[in-house]
Design goal:
Elements: H1 2-17, H2 36-41, H3 48-60, H4 68-74, H5 81-90, H6 95-106, H7 120-129, E1 134-135, H8 138-142, E2 157-160, H9 165-177, E3 182-185, H10 189-194, H11 200-203, E4 208-212, E5 219-221, E6 227-231, H12 236-244, E7 248-249, H13 259-266, H14 273-276, E8 283-289, E9 295-297, E10 323-330, E11 332-333, E12 339-345, H15 348-360, E13 366-371, H16 372-379, H17 383-395, E14 401-407, H18 409-418, H19 425-432, H20 435-439, H21 445-451, H22 456-461, H23 466-474, H24 478-482, H25 490-496, H26 505-511, E15 523-532, H27 535-552, E16 555-564, E17 569-578, H28 583-586, H29 589-600, E18 606-608, H30 620-624, H31 633-648
Parallel strand pairs: 2-4, 3-4
Antiparallel strand pairs: 1-2, 5-6, 6-10, 7-11, 8-9, 8-10, 12-14, 13-14, 13-16, 15-17, 15-18, 16-17
Helix pairs in contact: 3-6, 4-6, 7-9, 16-17, 27-29
Length: 649
């Protein structure tokens, strides 16, 4: 009996410790609904990810229970929505931790629970937003660990959930009066990555006021349907749904990202960038609150040239200068004439040549180069299947890179005339619904024979055997995907994959629900940056980041390459993966960040991603043109000193 209990607790702690804070549980992206407790009470503590942090802290003995803990545990209905969502994204079952928290709290002596502290600052904050939306309760604060709070927050930490720009203004004035630092928090996905690194101090908060922007979630469409004015707590997924109701789309990053924060922080880096732009291309107006609590609009007269910024590797900004409270976002018309294609390549050089030709000719509404790893992680239902699937497409078919295109019929004809092999939409659907079967054929004699043909790709995707392979070998079906999940979830996922959008590449590009699969029970650190779109610069940046990855990490890979400004600018993402529960892997993270950044600064015509951070309100012409020259040895030494001051300060 004790052994059984121990095994159960081991599973609970493994689930808790592998939490990656992707925040996808806050979106109804599978049609399951979202956590009713989180939706009602707002604070992260009432969402699955927050309860997991609370349970970890209780088991570690670092959290003294308050009476709020009872409400947090009791309001979880064990509805199971989080299990379905998290199984889809990270192959984890968070409900085991939600149940364990309930059991743990039920076993405690409630007489020992402490009252939440109160003080004059808290009373002022509650006067601004209402008593229920401001707290310094340690249980509530613990839920923000790893996504904005650095470990062991001070007694002078508060979390506030404003609803209006005026409330944000009043909160900032209180912070200024009491000389308290403050930071806004979106859904916390980027911060969950950064707080694992040497950036934790500069981008996180150990005391002061967290402004959780989640209650600021209104969307107002303009009468002509050309724009949508949104508050700071609107997610990309929800705004895309609203845009789709008008037969429009928006330029989005990750589904769970708050759009305002994503624009401010990164300008939105996307496969749609060559068509829809970057940074200030996204919006027509911004409402923001400055450090004095003054509310400004970009369409007003109080800001002088709000689109210009300091340039190059001396302009490192790790915290936002202002808090964006609302934006008016452009909506882009959708066409009925849109087609998705994948063009496979063995070498990066060939993929870059092909995609640069398309980008400079403005071919493709959406255009990017994907690595085999990115592609495999996204379309495969589990991590094990993704590894085997990637092994097969790289070993047998030499698919190491794919040029990913969405375009109209005219551009489609150009691609068909110039591509050796095309994976069309029906074949993409076949892939999505047959990855488990293909992954199981790792040592298949059939694939070995197919690989010996002069052009195995053409045989698979365009030859006379294509239909036979699809029907008699791969057997694509929703049932095949459902069978990859736990027994009690098979029926749900079988029905899910019968929905047309789950195999529709255009829908999947628009709603971006798959990228968080990169966080399957592990973390990753994004490296890379923007550069002049020349083949030699792209190759050098890739080789530089790959070299550092080889030195420090077991697993690392190119993510994607996308384009801006008619193919004049390229963005390259390279990812370093690591097991955040393994100290040996974790200790290599900071050295790899420092070394990769130092080497990136020796590349002519290249701007590391760190130097575009918090510049997303500006025009790309101000941020990227001209691209900086490589730093000299003396300049690198000066830069190193600047980084030390930022990290240690």
């Amino acid at each position: 009996m004790r052994e059984c209990h121990s095994m159960k607790e081991d599973l609970v702690m493994k689930t808790a410790n592998t939490e990656t804070h992707c925040a996808m549980c806050r979106l109804d992206f599978l049609g399951t609904g979202v956590c009713p407790s989180g939706k009602k009470h707002g604070f992260v503590a009432y969402w699955p990810q927050g309860r997991i942090e609370i349970y970890r802290a209780l088991k570690a003995g670092t959290l003294t229970p308050t009476h709020r803990l009872i409400d947090i545990a009791d309001t979880c209905t064990l509805c199971g929505a989080c299990d379905k969502q998290c199984s889809f994204i990270t192959n984890r079952r968070p409900m085991t931790v939600q149940k364990a928290l309930k059991d743990y709290v039920n076993g405690l002596d409630k007489q020992t629970f402490k009252k939440a502290p109160t003080d004059p600052i808290l009373k002022k904050l509650q006067h601004v937003v209402g008593e229920q939306w401001a707290t310094n309760d340690p249980v509530i604060l613990t839920a923000y660990n790893k996504t904005i709070l650095t470990p062991t927050p001070s007694p002078h930490a508060y979390v506030v959930m404003p609803k209006t720009a005026q409330e944000v203004s009043d909160i900032i004035k209180i912070a200024k009066t009491h000389q308290l630092p403050y930071l806004p928090r979106g859904n916390g996905t980027f911060l969950s990555v950064a707080l694992q690194t040497l950036l934790a101090g500069p981008v996180g908060l150990s005391n002061g006021i967290i402004l959780d922007m989640s209650r600021m979630n209104t969307i107002t469409l303009s009468k002509d349907g050309a724009t949508a004015t949104i508050q700071a707590g609107v997610t990309a997924f929800d705004l895309q749904k609203t845009a789709a109701s008008q037969n429009k789309r928006i330029l989005v990053g990750e589904a769970e990202a708050y759009v305002c924060a994503n624009i401010l922080s990164f300008g939105i880096i996307s496969t749609w960038g060559n068509t829809y732009g970057w940074g200030a291309d996204n919006y027509t107006d911004v409402e923001l609150v400055d450090e004095n609590g003054t509310i400004h609009h970009h369409t007003g007269e109080s800001l002088k040239n709000p689109f210009a910024t300091n340039h190059g590797p001396t302009s490192l900004t790790l915290q936002p200068a202002n808090i964006v409270t609302a934006m008016t976002i452009k909506l882009h018309p959708k066409s009925t004439d849109e087609h998705a294609m994948l063009i496979p390549f063995d070498t990066l050089e060939d993929a870059v040549d092909f995609s640069l030709d398309l980008a400079r000719k403005n071919i493709g509404i959406s255009l990017a180069i994907l690595s085999s790893k990115y592609f495999s992680d996204f379309i495969c239902p589990t991590n094990d299947i993704a590894h085997s699937f990637e092994h097969i497409i790289t070993k047998y078919f030499h698919i190491n890179y794919l040029v990913d295109i969405i375009c109209d019929s005219k551009d489609k004809r150009y691609v068909q005339d110039h591509a050796a092999v095309i994976i069309d939409e029906p074949m993409m659907k076949t892939f999505v619904l047959s990855t488990p079967t293909l992954a199981s054929m790792k040592d298949s004699e059939f694939l070995k024979k197919l690989a010996q043909k002069e052009t195995p790709l053409k045989t698979l995707f365009q030859g006379r055997l294509k239909r036979m392979i699809t029907k008699m070998v791969l057997h694509p079906s929703p049932e095949q995907i459902g069978a990859a999940f736990d027994n009690d979830l098979k029926e749900f996922f079988t029905e899910l994959y019968k929905k047309p959008e789950m195999t529709n590449p255009i829908w999947l590009h628009e709603y971006r629900i798959l990228p968080c699969r990169m966080l399957r029970q592990r973390m990753f650190m994004v490296r890379g940056g923007f550069m002049t779109a020349q083949k030699d610069v792209i190759r050098k940046s890739f080789e530089t980041l790959q070299e550092v990855g080889n030195k420090y990490h077991k697993e690392h890979a190119l993510g994607f390459i996308s384009f801006l400004d008619k193919g004049n600018i390229a963005f390259l993402e390279y990812d370093y993966y690591y097991d955040h529960t393994n100290p040996e892997e974790h200790k290599n993270l900071n050295p790899s960040i420092v070394e990769s950044l130092t080497k990136e600064l020796t590349i002519d015509g290249y701007l590391p991603i760190e130097f575009s951070f918090h510049k997303g309100l500006y025009r790309k012409e101000q941020v990227f043109y001209p691209f900086p020259k490589a730093l000299t040895t003396e300049e690198l030494q000066q830069f190193g000193q600047m980084v030390k001051q930022i990290v240690n300060g």
